[in-house]
Amino acid sequence: MPNPRIAxxxxxTGTNMEVLLKACASGxxxxxxxxxxxxxxxxxxxxxxxxxxxxxxxxxxxSGRRAAEEAIAKAVRENNIEWIVLAGYMRILSPEFVHxxxxxxxxxxxxxxxxxxxxxxxxxxxxAGVSTTGVTVHIVDEEVDHGPILAQEEVKRxxxxxxxxxxxxxxxxxxxxxxxxxxxxxxxxxxK
Length: 192
What we know:
Blueprint: E1 5-10, H1 15-26, E2 32-38, H2 44-51, E3 56-58, H3 65-78, E4 83-86, H4 95-100, E5 105-109, H5 121-128, E6 132-139, E7 149-156, H6 163-191
Parallel strand pairs: 1-2, 1-4, 2-3, 4-5
Antiparallel strand pairs: 5-6, 6-7
Helix pairs in contact: 1-6
């Protein structure tokens, strides 16, 4: 079977996106990234994606979420995208959008869901003083940071850690676990 066609959505630096693009290019991740999209025109990750040879798209939220999501949905349909991969996309997708692409949106979150959902998972875990947090890869459903879990990995909070130390280890774990979880998921789907 041909490699699945994916679109990656980002909002910032796109470090997870960069890891995924390089894994696709090397064949480590059996997928074809058709485009990288962002809700921020000046997102550093768009320049990174462009430099790595990926097509990039900007989806403006100036006219509201509905207009932006209609533009994303149109790009997904026109490019025969099979999977929407969220890599630091800081917008909450509407239930209508999620319903249209049900089971086809994958997200990574810097906490062990269901604990610490939302935009500040690392900060929230740090402030709660938990000894273990981690990373979750999941299929997106209509609830925020919720849906079937594809992979989770714990990250310990070590004595003497600063929040920056913990954050660095979480991001390192994200970079490893996301491509592995997607690879396993895509390969399992191809066998069906």
